[in-house]
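Subject: complex prediction, re-run

Hi both,

The earlier run crashed halfway through, so I resubmitted it with identical inputs.
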Amino acid sequence: MKHSGKFIVLEGPDGSGKTTQIGRIEAYLREQGADFISTREPGGVLVAEKIRSVILDVDHAMSGLTECLLYAAARREHLLQKVIPALEQGKIVICDRYVMSSLSYQGYGRELGEAVLDINKRAINVDGTEYWPDLNIYLDVTPEVGLQRIHAKDAGREINRLDLEKEDFHRKVREGYLRLSREYQESFATIDASQNEAEVFADIKRVLERLLFEGPQQEFS
Ligand SMILES: Nc1ncnc2c1ncn2[C@@H]1O[C@H](COP(=O)(O)OP(=O)(O)OP(=O)(O)O)[C@@H](O)[C@H]1O
Ligand SMILES: [Mg+2]
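This time it finished cleanly. Structure:
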């Protein structure tokens, strides 16, 4: 079904600054008087938050495919219960992670490849429409920078099962994101997230303005 909202997703490795920048985006959209919601994956609705705690618990070893299916299950519920209703009301939806996270973490990081795309296409298909974001804002940092940030003492965030993966996993995740940014370039804006918070936000704001206030645009990068 067609909707008049805008679906904007923040993507990037752990510690790239997604949650931090969503805070700034919220403040900016509020200032503009925009009608928006902000949400996160996995989670955002009760059943998906429960799936999130199953996935991220450091004691829950599981196969890569199980992990992929759980993320996809959480994604679908969140999409059905929260994202689509907001889009249909014409709202801007700001979401912390979506399909590109699965393609990079499970597809590239866990090396599950195409299976992840197949599963996700099914998960985001509602009544024959696949719900892809209008824009993926990809915050690009090296694993060294990202992991150093989240392991810093004052990061105020629990270390989860995926953070504890070896460096090689995080490297594959980033390579995955970089490939995806080329493959899906019409919906990708790549931002250098090694800059300071204000500089990163200035870049994000430019892309947001293009999407929200200047009409259709072919490319964001
Ligand atoms: N541009 C920046 N420069 C330096 N530190 C930053 C920057 N952006 C965020 N940080 C800090 O890095 C840490 C991780 O940031 P944040 O939680 O926003 O990342 P994230 O992408 O949401 O990570 P995750 O995927 O693990 O949720 C926080 O302590 C935050 O204050
Ligand atoms: Mg975060």
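The beta strands are 6-11, 36-40, 92-96, 125-126, 129-130, 135-140, 188-192.

- K.
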